[in-house]
Give the backbone structure.
Amino acid sequence: MKNSVVFLICLFLWVSNPDQLVAQQALIDSLQNIISKNNQDTLHLKALVNLGIALERTNLQQSKANFLAALAMKNNPDFNRLKATAAIRLAGNYSATGSLDSANYYFEKAESIIKSYPSDHKLAYNLYSGLGIHFNRIGKADLALDNYKKASVLDPSLIGLDNVAGLYINMANVYQSLDDQKLRVESAYKALEIFEKTQNKTGLSFVYNLLGSINYQLKNYSESEKYFLSSLEYRKLLNDRRGEAVVLSNIGNIYTDRGSYDQAIEFFIQASEINESLGLKDQKGIALINLGKTYEKMGDYQKALGQFKEAQKILNEAGISKMDALLLTDIGKVQRMLSMDQESYANLLKSSQLAESEKQYFDAITAFKNLKEYYQEKGRYQEALMAQTKEYTYRDSVGMEALRAQLKEFESKYALDLKENEINLLKAEKELDKLELSRRKANQNLIMAIFFFLILLAGILVNKYRIVGKTKRLLEVERLRNAIARDLHDDLGSTLSSIHILSQMALQRETNGSNPVFSKINTQTATMMDKLSDIVWSIHPDNDNLDQLLSKMQEFAAEMLEPKEITYEFEVSEGAKEIKLDLEKRRNLFLIFKEALNNAAKYADSQHLDIRLTVQGGKLNLLIKDDGKGFDQTLIKKGNGLFNMQQRAQMMGGNMVIESFPEIGTSIQLSAPIA
C-alpha cells in the first residue's frame, strides 16, 4: 500500500510537470555518469563544473565539492577557462555561506587565470558579475557597482541577452543599497523586458522578486504579493531552494505588515529552515530580522530582541555589514520598549550615525524616527525636533511619491512597448505555447484517464475477488453450521432423549418412585435437552435474523410467565426484525433474556413485566422491567446469574445496567452495538 502511494505521488508530479522534472534529473544523471568514468579529460571537467552549477540552488555542499574537484584536476592549458569558471562559482558559494577569506582566495585565483584571456568577454562577465554580487552582499555597494559597470561595457552579443538582463537585476540590487530608487526601478524594467523576450524562467523568477520588493517598499502590498507569488511559482518549478527561501521571507513581510502574524511566522520559519539546510548565513540573518520584526509588532519584545541579536551575530560572523544600521535601530527600538534606556539610546544613536555615514537613506529615516520617539519619551523636545528634521529631510530626499509615479510610468511604458513593438512575436510565441500546451494537456489527460481506468479496474477486480471469497467462506460456514446443528439434534439430542425416557421408566418401576439417582438423572437430562435445544437453534443459519430470535423469545416468555399467571407486554420497535446478528451476539442476547425472565418469574413475585426491544443509533437496546418486590443492591449478594449476564453483555461489546428498589421492582437494561 505504501509503495502504491509513493508511485501515485511520483506519477502525479510527472504528469503535472513532466518535462521540467525529467529534464533536470536527466541532466544530473547524465553529468554524474560522465564523472563516474573518471577520464580526467575536458568532458570530465565540464561535467564537474556543470553539475556544480546545477546543484547551487539545492545542495551547496555537493556543489562546492564538484567545483573543488574541478580545480584539483591536473594542470592543462585547455582546462584553464573551465577552471576559472569553477573558481568564480566556488567563490560565490563561499561568499553566500559567509566564508569571506575563501571567497577572496578563489576570486583572486579566477582573476589570475582570466588575465591570460583578455578577449574572452563571457569569462570576464562571469568574474565581474560574481564580484559585484559578493561586494553588494557584504555591504560594499561602490565596489559592487564598479564591477557591474565593467561588465556592462562588454559585447552583449558575446555575453548573451540573458546575462545582460541578469546584470540589470544585479545593478538594481546595488541601487537599492545606494538608495537610488529611480535607477533601481529603471534597471528592473529593463531586465523584465529582456526576460519576457527570451522567456527565461530563471531570469523571470529573479525580476518578479525584485519588482515585488520595490512595490513592498512603496507599501503597494497587493502588487507586491502578486509579483512574489509569480516568482515563487517559478522558483518551485525550477527547484530553486535558495530563491524559494528569499521569496518566502518576502511574502512573510507582507503578512507582518497586514497584521497576519501567525502566517508571517510560518513563512519566516520555512525560509529559515531552507537557509539553514543550505548554509546561507546572509539569508538566514535576514529571515531572523524579519521574524524579530514580527514578534515586535506582536508585542513580544523579549523574543524580538533575541531574534535581532541572533541575526546580528550570524551576519557579523559572515562579514556582512550592510544591515548593521537597520539592525541597531531594531535592537534599540525593542530595548526602549523593555525600558533598557541606556542600551536603547546608544544603539539608536549609533544606527542614525551609521546610516548617515553609509548614505543609507531609507535606514536613516527609520533610525531618526525611532530616535525622535526616544527623545519625546524622555521629554528632550529640542533633540526630538532635531531628529524629526533629519527624518523629514531624508524622507524628502528619497521622494516616495515621485518614486511611485515613476514606477507607474515604467509599468505603463513597458506595457505599451510590449503591445506596439513585440505584439507579432508574442502572438506567434503564444500560439506555439498554446499548441504545446494543448499537446501536453492531451497527453496528460490520456495518461490520467488510463491511470484512473487501471485504478478503477484494479479496484473492481479486488472487490470482486473479496466478494467471491467472502461468499464462498459464508457458504462454507453455513454448511458447517447446518451439519453441526443436524448432528447435535439427531445424535446427541436423540441420545439425551433416550436417557430421559429410560430414567422416567426406571422411576415408574420403583415401588415408591423416589429413587434419588434416577430422579437426578431425569432432571439433569431434561435441563441438558433444554440447553441443547437452545444451542441447536442458535447454530442453525435459518435463525440468523432477529425475527426468528424474537419468536423464540416470545415463545419462552409465554412458557415461563403464563403458568405463573404473570402478565407481560412484549414491544418491538419498527425495523428491528430485519436486523441480522452474528451467532455469538444472538446467543448471548437470548441467554441474558432467559436469565432475566427466570429471575423475574422465580424471585420477584411480580404481577406484570414490560419487555421492550428497540434499535437506535446502531445499537440494540433490551429493557425488562417488573413490578415485583425488588431488592437492595447494596445488601444482596450477586450470584452466578447476575454475574453471567454482565459478562455476556461485555462479550457483546455493550453494557448492562440493573436497577432495583425494594417494593418497587427491578429493571434490567442492555445496550450493545449491532455490528
In short: The chain has a mean pLDDT of 80.
